[in-house]
TrEMBL record:
Cited NCBIfam families: lysS_bact (TIGR00499), PRK00484.1 (NF001756)
One Pfam family linked to the record: tRNA-synt_2
HAMAP family the record matches: Lys_tRNA_synth_class2 (MF_00252)
One GO biological process term: lysyl-tRNA aminoacylation
GO molecular function: ATP binding; lysine-tRNA ligase activity; magnesium ion binding; tRNA binding
Protein name per Swiss-Prot or TrEMBL: Lysine--tRNA ligase
Native species: Janibacter limosus
Details of cofactor binding: Binds 3 Mg(2+) ions per subunit.
The protein's required cofactors: Mg(2+)
Subcellular location, record wording: Cytoplasm
Entry keyword set: Aminoacyl-tRNA synthetase, ATP-binding, Cytoplasm, Ligase, Magnesium, Metal-binding, Nucleotide-binding, Protein biosynthesis
Amino acid sequence: MRIRRAKRDRLLADGKEAYPVTVGRTHSLAEVTESWQHLETGEETQDVVTVAGRVMFVRNTGKLAFAALQEGVGTRLQVMLSLAEVGEESLAQWKADVDLGDHVAVTGRVIRSRRGELSVMATAWTMASKALRPLPVLHKELSEEARVRQRYADLVVRQEARDMVRLRAGIVRAIRETLHARSFIEIETPVLQLVHGGAAARPFDTHMNAFDQKMSLRIALELPLKKAVVGGVDKVYEMGRLFRNEGVDSTHSPEFTSLEAYEAWGDQFTMAELIKELHLAAAEVAGTQIVSTAAGEVDLGGEWRWLSFYDGLSQAVGENVDVFTSVQRLREIADAKGVQLDPAWDAGKAAMELVAELVEPTCVQPTFICDYPAIAQPLARPHRDRPGQIEAWDLFIGGVERGTAFSELIDPVIQREVLEDQSRRAAAGDDEAMALDEDFLRALEFGAPPMGGLGLGIDRLIMLFTSVGIRETILFPHLKPEA
């Protein structure tokens, strides 16, 4: 870095610019590659272009210098500087001033070298941006920690990182196009909320000085979107950042991107059709419906099966278990299966933990685990046929939860009772219990149409097609502070 800084200072002392405003670029590297790809080996043109890019390779010989410039998605183009074309002084300055990682601009003729490499034979060059810090070594594998902490460097040296950015952008675009084709309307709802709700999670708390009011960052998109449906926006969605003050691991990030969509006159079954369509749209962008996961190979084009919560649990433990099974019996089953349960949990939570440990990991092919106990989703409608259960499902692919949906609870009286129970749980020390949102209840009291709603984690969707952890799918994830 001292050497590079000295080169910068020397450029400035000589009256040259190390960081000019513009360099007169006429063509991108991709445009040169596309427009002159027809040149035969050894063929030269009199077509003069000015290109610019980051120096990713350089080789200097006596009377000739070669460099590979890179831009954007990883497009590269060779530039050649010969003593006869650029002159002794300019060639010497190139050798003295240019390092790997610098941005340079090169003006010259487009040719195909005798080795078949499309190139720009320089007649002049200029520094576009002097890099003061060396790039990571290209042929050495960066640690995941280095990749995510210095993503800007990762993007420069690793094609997989650049591909991830574009794959994610393409999948997000495909999701929006699919929803728009179904006449869904995208809206934006507040990130700062007086009352956090819509999920069971611990929020990040902050303070609004203008109102001298404690606020929370949203943990879900649900409640404002349902209010929009009450108002007549029959098909509505939002894709945005959520914030949950919880643990961090390979599948969880405190800040992540979620899609929530709500459809008047829909239910859990219409939402199942929609989430399947969204996955297939993403698969089209990724170029395959066959994906590899840690649990095995998955065929998204195959059957998407339904598995009732208690049926799956009964199969896993070898005896009939249902919503009426006592918490004591569930604890005995858990002990026999080596599953740890919190002594404070009721039967519903105990059953959910057993399913999480014994059933969910076995759901390799797309599986809707449905008919959950009521405690699982305080905002879901009671099941039309199964007392004590709700019309809700979680989608599992590769043994990992990929989305959730339910037939929405729209009875304001029952919803108030459920949220009051959540408030009591919060008062008793449950950090993840929902707060009582009077404005949401007031909206329901105006009359909400029957509706279905779904939630889909965008980061986990990207993970499905890339087989990487969540930190690799988020461009700039949160990390512990550097020492």
